[in-house]
Each structure stands twice: as C-alpha cells, then as structure tokens.
Amino acid sequence: MSRPGQTSTVQKPRRERRGGAGRLALSILLPLLLTLGGCLYRRPAPLSESARFQLTVRELLSEDQTRATYHEMRTRVQDMGPEVDAVLLALARDRAVNLVVRSNALVLLAERRAPGAFSVLERALRPDQPARLRAAAVLGLQRLLAVTPDAMRLIRGALQDRSRTVRLNALTALDVTDVETVRAMLERERDPEVREVAMQLVGIAEARGAPLATDRRGALRTTSSALDAQIVFRPAQADPASGLALGDLRLELPGALDVPLTSNARAMGGVVPAFFSADHAQVVFEDDGQIRVIEIPTRNIRSVGPGIAPRVIPFSNSFVFLRELPPARAAPGDEMRYSVFRAEFGGGAAEVIGELRATIPAGAPPGYSPVRRMVVAETLDGSVLRGEGITTFLLPAISGEPVRPVAFATTVAAPLRQSGAN
Questions:
Q1: What is the DSSP string of 160-226?
Q2: Residue 26 placed within a domain
Q3: Most exposed: 198, 259, 268, 307, by fewest CB within 10 Å?
Q4: What is the pLDDT of residues 4-53, one digit of tens each?
Q5: Which residues pair with 285 in a beta bridge?
Q6: What is the C-alpha separation between 145 and 160, in angstroms, rounded?
Q7: CB neighbour list of residue 179: distance below 8 Å, 6 or more residues apart
Q8: Counted domains in the chain
C-alpha cells in the first residue's frame, strides 16, 4: 500500500512480459519461415520421354502368362521400334526388377532377335539364377534355334537342371533327331510327370522315323506301355559298316499271339520301315520292296505297290513312301531321284505328290541309302521329309480335321489274310 501523496506503480507479472517478447519474435520469424518454406518446396520435375517409355514397357511386362491380357501385351511390345531392345535388356539384367517382368523381357528379346539376346539368355540359365528366370531362358532359346546352333546346346544342357519346369521346357524344344538325348535323360529322371512327357516324345520321334532302341536280346522295338502293341524287328544279318540289317518284322500284341509281317525287312541305322497309323489300328510297312498295310483287328494285309521307306504324315490318315527313278545309281556322290507317293490308310490308289532327291555322301559304304534314315520334321511351313544328303521335301498340308493319336485297343487274334494290290 502506498502512502498519501505518493504515486503507485503496478508491477506486471513476469509471464506476461515473456509472452509479449515471444509474440514479437514470432511475428518476425513467421514471414521468414514462410519464405524459406517456399524456397525449399519444389514441384517434382517432369519425367523425360525416355523415362516415361521405360516405365510404360515395364508396366506392360508385368502381365503374367496366365492372364488374358498377356498376348495383347506381347503384341504391343513387338510392334515397338528397335529402341525397346535396350529397355528389355536392362530389365532382364536388373535384379531389383520382379521376376515376371524379367522373364517376359527374356522371351521378348529372343522373339525380336535383339542384339545381345543370346548372351543375356545364357547368363539367365546359370544355376545361381531363379528357377523362373531359367525356365524363361529356355523358352527364349527356342526362338533362337534358327539363329545359332549354340541355342540347342544350352537347351540340351537344361535337361539336367534341378527345376522340373526347366527340364519340361527343354524337352518341348527337342527335335526328332534328339531321341537318344531324351532316352539318356530317361535313365536318370525320377519325376513322374517329366518321365511321362519324355516317353511321349520318344514315341513321337520313333513314329517320325527316329531309330528304335535295342532291347536286351538285340531286337529293335517301339516304345510303349505294357498295354500297347509294339513293332519289333529281330535282325538276322547285319552290316556294321553301312548300318544295314536284314531280319524278321512282326507285331507283338499284349495278351495275344505275335503277328508276323515279313521275314525280309530292312532296317538302316536302327530305323525300321514300319509305322502305326494315328489310331494304332493299322501299320504300314515295307516288305522286300513292296509297301503293305495291315489292319490289326482283322489281320488283313493289302498291298499298296512297289516302294521303300514309308513314313506317316503327322496328324493325318495318310502316309508317304518312295519309288526310285531310273537310272539307279549307288556310288558315293551320285544323286538319286525318287517319286514321292501318298496313300491313305483307309484304302485307295497311291498318288504321286512330287520328287525327292538324295545324294550318297562321300565315303559311304556299299548298301548305304540316305532315304532309309530320313525323318519327318516340323518347320514353319509344315511337315517335311529331311535327312543327311536329302533335299528337304515339303509334305502336303492336312486337309480336313487332323487325326489325333489314340491308345491302341487290344483285339482278339484273327487269322492272317492278304489281299491283292488296290
């Protein structure tokens, strides 16, 4: 309390004085902070055209093969210019990219036959790479088979991969001439599905002219289950130099007596001139220079006419055979000419569909015939006859609905009958 006549001074609280100072500081700093914040914030810089292109390709490649849009993606990438190849190479090599994108990039690189495609596929097939990438690399190498022979070398090596998917992809790429490779694989393969696919491929190769396997008794026989018929050739004479063998040809039927076909069969290099029809109900075979067909359920045999080296046209009810044109020459280096005939398993006269030429290779022993070892192979143009020293012959396209192979049904034995030529 002040005394009378004395002026009173009121003391403001210390907290109030501090608040005023804080407000003053804030009023000074706030504009500075706002200015500084405006300086620090920047809108993202727009992506370059190249970066946008890379993101577009990467997004397209994220489509899995199981999706309906996968083929649309492939078409869009295939339609792009050569500038996409560098992007595909970078994505295939980048370990930070997901495996779907990298796998698709590998296959597309091969389809486009881009520079550097083979080397990146070879690298992706190494054991330390993910299984999905190795499987895609095999699919990519299939697209390069016409470009480099090294592609098939890598595919054959993939048959020993630890991944069953990789091994299955490798099997589907093999050719008729790889039948021995598949047989060697079967000896070590333990996976039931892989074994089943390999057995089917061996059967297909044999049906197209590949050599048959020799059993423990020295006979050549087709590959089949115990419930199916087998074509069996038992050699009586053999010439190791030419690979020519003469002997007995017959059908072995499960639960029934054997059906003799001829005792004058000629096999060359393990190739036996006898083949099942697609439905396994008939067999076309060569008998001492004549082409014959047997109907297994009835045992009826009909003669088609003179000829050698019958082969079945895949997925059809037809077969072809050859008839040598004069002059007949058999010296090394000589060119031999053959008329190619087509006939139906169902009957009817054979018709000429063209001419095939073959050259006996230098150093070939007497009795060697290149056409006896020819195979039926597949190309982009269709099925062809081909072989060493043979001019590739394009077989006629299938007309109508293709015939699909079916399992052979065992039939009751019937007497063997033979009819005359049609």
A1: G-S-HHHHHHHHHT--GGGHHHHHHHHHH---HHHHHHHHHHHHHHHHTTPPPEE-TTS-EE----T
A2: no
A3: 259
A4: 555 454 455 555 555 556 565 556 655 655 555 555 455 665 656 666 76
A5: 274, 292
A6: 19
A7: 201, 202, 205, 206, 210, 211
A8: 2
